[in-house]
Each structure stands twice: as C-alpha cells, then as structure tokens.
Amino acid sequence: MSGGERVLVTGATGFLGRHVVESLLRAGCHPVVLVRDERAWAGSLVARRTEVSSAVTVITGSPLDPPNARDPRLDGLRAIVHAAAVVKHSRTVPEDLFPLNVDGTANMVRLARELRARMIFVSTSGTVGCFRDPRGTADEDAPYANELVGRWPYYQSKIKAEEVARDIARKTPVDLVIVRPPVMLGPGDTRFRSTKHVLSVMEQHIPLVPTGGMHFTDVRDVADALARLVAMPTARPIYHLPGTATSLAEFFQMVAEVSGAPVPTRTMPDWALRSATRTVSRIAGGLGLKVPSWVPDPVVAEMASVHWGLSTLWSDQLGYTPRAPRQTLVDTVQYIRAHHPAFAQSRAA
Ligand SMILES: NC(=O)c1ccc[n+]([C@@H]2O[C@H](COP(=O)([O-])OP(=O)(O)OC[C@H]3O[C@@H](n4cnc5c(N)ncnc54)[C@H](OP(=O)(O)O)[C@@H]3O)[C@@H](O)[C@H]2O)c1
C-alpha cells in the first residue's frame, strides 16, 4: 500500500474520476475509491492499461450507500473528490438521477464533515454559465442560470446539489469547495458520452449545425487542478475552470480539421430543430419505438441553441491553465479512433 495523504474519490470508474485517481497518484496521494461495482473498477484499469491497482484502496459502496466515518480505510482522510453523478441530457431521466446527484452529494458533504476532510464537489459550469447572448459569461460570483437551465433535469439536479451542499456547510463547519468545469474532452471517455459531439462529427452524424455554442476544456487539466486543490492549505468556496468557447459551427469545423471528417455545414433554424426533435420523440414514444441515435434528444436540441460562457476570478491559484484546445481535440480523436467500435474495421485494416 502506498503512503501519501488519503483522498476519497467517487465516480472513479467514470471519465473524470479515473483521471483524478491518476493525478492524485502523481501528486503522491493515496486514492481511496468508492465504487459500486469492483469489477467495473478492475475493468476500467484494464481499459486504461494503468498499473494503479496496488496503489489504490477500493471501498464498495456509493454516495447513496456511503462508508461509515469510522471505517479504518478512511483514517486521516485529507479530502473527498466527489465526481459521481448521473449525467443525462433529457427529460426522460434515470430514476437515480436526482437521488444520486442531490442526496448522494449531501451524504458526501456529511461524511466530509464527520471526517473533518475537505469536500470537493465537482459540479458543472452549466449551473451558472448559460446564456442566450454569445457574449454572456459567468464568474464565481454569478447567480444560477435557472431561467434557462431550470428546464433541464440534469442541471436542475446540479443546482439543487450545490444548494443542499452549501446549506449543510452553512449550518455546520465543512470545508466545502465547489468546482465547475465546462464540457470535458480528452482521452479515456470509455462511455463516449462526454466526447459524443466529437464522435458524431467523426461518424458524420451531424445532420444539421445548430446556432448555439460550445465550451470545452481538457479532462486531464481538470483532474490535475482537483489534485492541487486537495493539497492547498486554504481554498475558496467556488472555482471555475474555463476552457475554450466557440460556436458549435466553429467547434465542428475544428474537429473535422483534426479528424479528417467532412465539415458539417447544413443549418436549420433553432425553432425548427427543436420542434422536429420534439415531434420525433413524441411519435416514437407513442409508438413504443426507439428514436434513432443520430436524432438528438429535445433537451440536447434546446441546449444547442444557447451559449456557454464561463470565466474565473481566481482559478490561477490552482495552477489551472488548460492546454491548447487543438491538442485536446487531437488526443480525443485519437482515443475514439483507437477504442470506439465504429472504427474497429479501420483499426484492423
Ligand atoms: N463530462 C463532462 O463534460 C462534465 C462537464 C461538467 C461537469 N461534469 C461533472 O463531472 C463529474 C464526472 O463526470 P464524468 O463525465 O466523469 O461522468 P461519467 O463518465 O458518466 O461517470 C459517472 C460516474 O458516476 C458513477 N455513477 C453513475 N450512476 C451512479 C449511481 N447510481 N450510483 C453510484 N455511482 C454512480 C459511475 O459509476 P459506474 O461506473 O458504476 O456507472 C461513474 O463512476 C460529474 O459530477 C459531472 O456532473 C462532467
């Protein structure tokens, strides 16, 4: 078992969580991962070809079934990095979305309080940084963007989670830090969820280019910032981790250039796209049919007509400077080409 300060990581089988574990190891910490399925954790190590298993303590459980604060594996815990969440952009959401995202977060804040550990909650830029105007931007003092994102259950759940966490921290002392990254790209998204927009361009599955925006950063830079936050003697209550903001048209063009796929150019007014996706989903739902994967969910279509502006007052304190966006896209494309089933034939050739 490695030495170093212990840090509990939730969501360690996910895209960000696995990078967090690696960043913590590089920083000399001892990650303790809370996973609901040990086989998924073991499988994720094989998928990433990392040799971290012996340096990590595994606890089976979940934020909804948290470990006891007296568990000796949590002795001397320095911090919790809480990255587990159900991330689904739809009005048809899994039944565990609100329980995990809200109650699970509250449980982790209470555990951090009992253990006197820093509670680092990975929220999302979307709780504050969503605008109709492409010039809009939100820093750490910005109010919640309820008017726009309150229509979308995932963002509702993250706002609620932030509110519940802050409420607990107001009533009893907890060193709570909320971190808000935008969309994360980079290698290692085994579910191809966060990197779906990149995959869609590569598969030529972008039927129309919406008028909204995109804001992305590199998952590895977010993970390193979180690891540095663990070690900082004192922290601010909120950190934004802005990346690159573009229109979706520019974003698709950048991905096309990097991947060699054709640039999607066909456009459609936003109202028409929103209404088409709603109609398809209503008809498919009524007939009990599955909506084709290239037809966006109505929530995704609505999100594609707005803009995602994020700025920061102090994330330089975390040594956070995201790498060049082109490098992130090159590495994302390379990972997708090497791992996604759609490219299995070209790999074999
Ligand atoms: N990806 C982005 O672009 C992005 C942007 C902003 C903020 N965020 C936030 O960053 C965090 C990590 O996102 P991600 O992209 O790494 O997500 P991800 O790849 O989908 O991973 C989600 C993690 O949550 C766990 N989880 C899901 N449902 C669970 C449940 N019912 N009980 C216990 N654990 C459960 C998963 O465990 P299993 O392996 O067992 O399913 C997995 O470890 C989330 O809090 C998300 O809100 C993400």
Summarize this structure briefly:
This protein is α/β, with parallel strands linked by helices.
Spell out the blueprint of helices and strands.
Layout: E1 6-10, H1 15-26, E2 30-35, H2 38-48, E3 57-60, E4 79-82, H3 97-115, E5 118-122, H4 146-149, H5 153-171, E6 176-180, E7 183-185, H6 196-202, E8 213-218, H7 219-231, E9 238-240, E10 244-247, H8 248-259, H9 270-287, H10 298-303, H11 325-339, H12 344-348
Parallel strand pairs: 1-2, 1-4, 2-3, 4-5, 5-6, 6-9, 7-8
Antiparallel strand pairs: 8-10
Helix pairs in contact: 1-7, 3-5, 6-8, 8-11
Bound molecules: NADP nicotinamide-adenine-dinucleotide phosphate.
Residues 11, 13-17, 36-37, 40, 62, 64, 83-87, 96, 100, 122, 124, 181, 183-184, 191, 193-194 line the site of NADP nicotinamide-adenine-dinucleotide phosphate.
- What is the helix fraction of residues, given as a range? 40-55%
CATH-defined topology of the domain at 6-186 and 216-245 and 307-322: Rossmann fold
Distance between the termini: 43 Å
**Heteromolecules bound:** NADP nicotinamide-adenine-dinucleotide phosphate
Poorly predicted regions: none
Q: Total strand count, please? A: 10
Give the oligomeric state of the chains in this entry, treating copies of one chain as homo and distinct chains as hetero. Answer: single chain
* Secondary-structure class: alpha/beta
Give the radius of gyration. 20 Å
- General shape: globular
CATH H-tier superfamily of the domain at 6-186 and 216-245 and 307-322: NAD(P)-binding Rossmann-like Domain
**Main sheet: strands, sense, barrel:** 7 strands, parallel
Mean pLDDT: 92
SSE series: EHEHEEHEHHEEHEHEEHHHHH
